[in-house]
Amino acid sequence: MKIYRVALREVARRRIRTLYTASGITVAVALLVATLTVGGAAHHDLQQTIARYGHSLTIFPATTHETSLQGFGIGSGHYIPQDLIPEIKRVYDAAIRAGWQQKGGLLLAEGAPGGLDIIEDPIIAPRLYEPAQVLDRDVIVAGVEASEEYKARFWWEIDDGALPAAADEFMAGKVLADVARLRPGQRLVINGHEVKLTGILRETDSPDDYMLFGALPTVQRIFDRPNKISLINIRAMCNYCPVGEAELWLNQQVVGVRATSQREIAQAQHRIFANVASVIGGFVAVSLAIACMAVFNMMMGTIHGRIREVGLLKVLGASRWQLLRLFMYEGIGIGLVGGALGAGLGIVIAQLIGPWLLPTAIIQVRLSHVGLALAAAVLTSVLATLYPAIHAGRIKPAQAFRAL
Does the reported pTM lie above 0.90? Predict the structure, then answer.
């Protein structure tokens, strides 16, 4: 009979012992699979966020702070002059072109005399934020340029009603509408001016859900803020645009503004996530080490309990190499059992906690993660079995029978 068949029969015959021995590996592998699955989903979701929002800049007044609502220019008393937008666009365009030229990736129109760049103009969406009392509630009113804002916020969708079309028409965020029981067609009074609510914005899971939106000139007139805006969103219309270069140029050349790259924010979140994943990976490594020690102790106890069997095999002519293979095959069997159970448990854990931790991410199990988990389980079990197997091969028949 083949040695591996003897080992597999032994693993199958001692089911309770096998499951008990593999339990430590099961827990460690479950943690590993859950971490890889949820971590992979988080990484993919973050990459999607970078691809969706990353090629953009947000420009604030240079004197605002990062605390409270003042980071958005609300209640800070500081604004950006609206007539500064052409200068901001000029510097931004120059920085993007310089960045592409430095990378050697500037596109040129074929046949154009001297070469004419065909980089599409960015979307520049200014906003004015002002606090107000609406229906006895504290509300943030946002003035936007509809044509640019709808392009920059291409994920916006109307939940009820229609987009504002006239100067006195406004739109409400979903959460604000639900809390204040706002409905399309309702008349509202904002800072002494009556306006009409025409639509409810579908929930975006962002501060937009808590605001009222109207035309920028209207909001400037209602709050007596002529030629003033709170911030500017600039969305690049090219993939992998050098927005970092544009951020640097704007901060150096345009007085009174502070540019922040959304890509850098997303990348900072990526680094934070990587650090957290490293800590969790450390716990997984410790769990595998503990599982390795548990299997080692169990295998040493098993060999001691089967010392007579080892002696009998020696008498029948079994070599050290054959005994080593016998117990190593058993270790592989234990690793496969623990790995399979752990992979299944890890998938269940990932499916349960993934949607709770990452509501917007798609929790997808990858065969590579399962394969890695099985490999880690088998390697852990083999390492734990190696010394006990070598020890079994060194036992002499006389010593084995004398021990009993």
Answer: no
Helices marked H in 207-319: 216-222, 243-253, 262-305, 307-315
**What DSSP line would sit under 300-330, residue for residue?**
HHHHHHTHHHHHHHHHTT--HHHHHHHHHHH
Contact (Cβ atoms closer than 8 angstroms) between residue 357 and residue 288: no
Q: Rounded CA gap, 199 and 213, in Å?
A: 10
Put residue 215 in one of left, alpha, beta given phi > 0 → left and psi -120 to 50 → alpha: beta
Integer angstrom CA distances of residue 79 from 68, 84, 141, 147, 296: 16, 11, 15, 22, 68
pLDDT digits (tens, 9 = 90+) for 271-326: 766 777 777 778 778 887 888 887 787 777 776 666 666 666 666 666 767 777 77
Start-to-end Cα distance in the chain: 27
Task: State the amino acid at position 88 in one-letter form.
Answer: I
> pLDDT tens across 95-139, in order?
888 887 776 655 444 443 433 445 678 889 999 999 999 998 999
Residue in the structure block whose two tokens are 């993007």: 96
Closest by CA to 216, choosing from 142, 132, 157, 162, is 142
Which tokens in the block code for residue 207? 């501060």
DSSP string for 341-362? HHHHHHHHHHHHHHHHH-TTS-
